[in-house]
From TrEMBL:
Protein name per UniProt: Chaperone protein HtpG
Region described as A: 1-356
UniProt-listed Gene3D superfamilies: 3.30.230.80, 3.40.50.11260, Heat shock protein 90, C-terminal domain (1.20.120.790), Histidine kinase-like ATPase, C-terminal domain (3.30.565.10)
Subunit architecture: Homodimer.
The keyword Calcium is annotated on this UniProt entry: no
GO CC annotation terms, alphabetical: cytoplasm
Family under the similarity heading: Belongs to the heat shock protein 90 family.
Record organism: Pseudoramibacter porci
A Pfam family the protein falls into: HSP90
Function of the protein: Molecular chaperone. Has ATPase activity.
CDD domains (UniProt xref): HATPase_Hsp90-like
């Protein structure tokens, strides 16, 4: 029979598919197995429509056979098969989908699908040309007495001729390309490689995928006695056998009823699928049906992945379409702040592009992502309410990611996450939520107070917190760099603004007696304070007597603009990129001095004695002390040391 030319500009389209549409050669096996599954679906569906009973999917296997010597790979199904005219339409016209036509013809009256079928584009078959120099297809349609063979070596065309085949179904034989320096096509004839590809992409095809495999089995007593000994006189313990094995699992664990799956089974699935040696902390299984149907099985790990906070970590869920793996890391299904969640989504409703390797950015995918986000938030809140210890463990692992989520994107997601974050409480001495803080605020308290520092122990010793904590005000401790940035983005919780304990104005009303004392001290010390400010020569925006210090001599507070903690973070970031911080990246420092401390009394004596040199030493020393308390480097360590020595004389 004369060779026929491909239709629909197929030469160009075939070249496009082989070289551009598919980015990963190994998916050819996924496509061929998916097509075989579709063919069996059609036959199975037709039989059930005709009233046949006793049907079992296990009676409809898909075989994968390999011949390393002949360099052939064969996929055989017992599906509905094709006539010569169907071969002409399905294989002779690229992008003509028999599966799509069958699905359309058997749609329900309301337009919804009557059956779940994988292939709808009619191009997956041609992905085989990425690895094959020749393809031979032998098929016999159900209800036909004649089989036909379709052969092609690519864009030059194809032939269709009568053939011999006893059973209904299709056999596709790939004659693999020769190996090159870049591509080892021989790997697709290796048992281990085929097993890996089937488990990776087609593990949940609902029909058994059978392959003849090599195994080692113990010899029976009789076989061992009959076996010949080796040079060392030892007889073999095992024998090599070849037998058929079902490679795929068929029924996904997420498709099974929750009541039929044990926690141990979920844990085993997670550890095997996502390569973890610890059980997940939380399992989230959900099944949604309706206009948008999908199954999702999500896991929150019990520990932080080693590279989670590095640029090498790739977030995303595995995406399946009717049990066939489409993407291993679908980032669009998870927001960054839930990047720690592992798991998968399986849906027949998502719109795929023709290669099934990439998704169209459509409303179905966005809708699934939105629902998953709400589900994760709901499950985390439930964990917080019912398993506080467990939630605190989770937050210790992944809370930083949630805080970044509040700060990121100009706070677009702050309202979703504000009730999930926690901060260490000065009064409770454990992590608490904003709601818990607000519920026990003092009656006249206007602000939610927080303090920043490198650690809880260091924050507890900070002079700025002394008066607040002495008066019984609760302070939240911020020990991560992102904490204050997140609180600034939040601005307030339940109409209660956040206020740093290092701010110039704490917003606490003093008693009349306290006000009178402070006013009298300030007026009496006005000259001294101005002299100290002059001695510091522009290092601080102001010098004043403190209303927050009790036992400590000095501290910094910050005026309007960025805080001192933010200055430290920005300085580190500038240093990392080799830049010098600009003035707008520095806080407006206010040097607060304890007017009741002996140090201030000493400074007053020096001021009254008009000892300007010593007063400058005192002023510089207090400034450096305040810098050290904040954990910031002093300007000149040698000058600091000499100054201390002068004052010790």
């Amino acid at each position: 029979m004369a060779k026929k030319e491909f239709k629909a500009e197929s030469k160009r389209l075939l070249d496009l598919m082989v070289n551009s549409i598919y980015t990963n050669k190994e998916i050819f096996l996924r496509e061929l197995i998916s097509n075989a599954s579709d063919a069996i679906d059609k036959r199975y569906f037709k039989a059930s429509q005709e009233g046949q009973t006793g049907l079992s999917r296990s009676d409809y296997p898909i075989r994968v056979d390999r011949d390393e010597d002949a360099r052939t790979l064969t996929i055989t199904d017992c599906g509905i098969g094709m006539t010569d005219s169907e071969m002409e339409n399905n294989l002779g016209i690229i992008a003509q989908s028999g599966s799509f036509d069958f699905k359309t013809e058997n749609a329900k009256e309301d337009g919804t699908d009557a059956l779940d079928i994988i292939g709808q584009f009619g191009v997956g078959f041609y992905s085989a040309f990425m690895v094959a120099k020749k393809i031979r297809v032998v098929s016999k349609a159900e209800g036909s007495d004649q089989a036909y063979v379709w052969e092609s070596e690519g864009a030059d065309g194809y032939t269709i001729e009568p053939a011999e085949r006893d059973d209904v179904g299709t056999t596709i034989t790939l004659y693999l390309r020769d190996d090159t320096d870049d591509d080892q096509y021989s790997d697709y004839l290796k048992e281990w490689k085929l097993r890996d590809l089937i488990k990776k992409y087609s593990d949940y095809i609902r029909y058994p995928i059978i392959m003849n495999v090599t195994k080692q089995e113990p010899l029976s007593k009789e076989e061992k006695e009959a076996a010949e000994a080796d040079e060392d006189g030892k007889k073999p313990e095992f024998k090599t056998v070849h037998e058929d094995e079902t490679i795929n699992s068929m029924v996904p664990i997420w498709k099974r009823s929750k009541s039929d799956v044990t926690t141990e089974e979920y844990n085993a699935f997670y550890k095997d699928k996502f390569v973890d040696w610890e059980d997940p902390q939380k399992i989230i299984s959900t099944n949604v049906e309706g206009l948008l149907s999908y199954n999702a099985l999500l896991f929150i790990p019990s520990r932080v992945p080693y590279n989670f906070y590095s640029k090498d970590y790739k977030r995303g869920l595995q995406l399946y379409s009717s049990g066939v793996l489409i993407m291993d890391k679908c980032e669009d299904l998870l927001p960054d702040y839930f990047g720690f969640v592992r798991g998968l989504v399986d849906s027949q409703d998502i719109s795929l592009n023709i290669s099934r390797e990439m998704l169209q950015q459509d409303r179905q995918l966005k809708a699934i992502a939105s629902r998953l986000e709400k589900k994760i938030i709901s499950e985390l809140k439930d964990m917080m309410a019912k398993d506080r210890e467990g939630y605190e463990k989770f937050f210790n692992n992944f809370g930083l990611r949630l805080k970044f989520g509040i700060y990121d994107n100009f706070g677009a997601n702050k309202d979703k996450l504000k009730d999930l974050v926690m901060f260490y409480s000065s009064t409770e001495e454990k992590p608490v939520t904003f709601q818990e803080y607000v519920d026990r605020m003092k009656e006249d308290q206007k602000y939610i107070y927080y303090a920043t520092g490198d650690s809880i122990d260091k924050i507890k010793k900070m002079p700025q917190n002394e008066m607040l904590m002495d008066k019984g005000y609760e302070v939240l401790f911020c020990t991560e760099e992102v904490d204050e940035f997140a609180l600034k983005v939040l601005n307030a919780y339940n109409d209660k603004p956040f206020k740093s304990t290092a701010e110039d104005d704490l917003g606490i009303e003093l008693s009349d007696e306290e006000k009178a004392i402070r006013e009298k001290q300030s007026k009496a010390s006005e000259g001294l304070l101005n002299s100290i400010k002059d001695a510091l020569d522009g290092k601080v925006a102001d010098v004043k007597l403190s209303t927050r210090l009790k036992s400590h001599p000095v501290c910094f507070s910050a005026g309007e603009g960025i805080s001192i903690e933010m200055e430290k973070v920005l300085a580190e970031q500038s240093k990392a990129v080799g830049q010098t911080p600009t003035d707008d990246m520095k806080a407006k420092k206010v040097l607060e001095i304890n007017g009741d401390h002996p140090v201030f009394a000493a400074m007053r004596r020096v001021y009254e004695a008009d000892d300007k040199a010593t007063l400058k030493d005192y002023a510089e020393l207090l400034y450096d002390q305040a810098m050290l308390i904040e954990g910031m480097p002093i300007d000149d360590p040698v000058d600091f040391s000499n100054r201390v020595c002068r004052l010790m004389k």
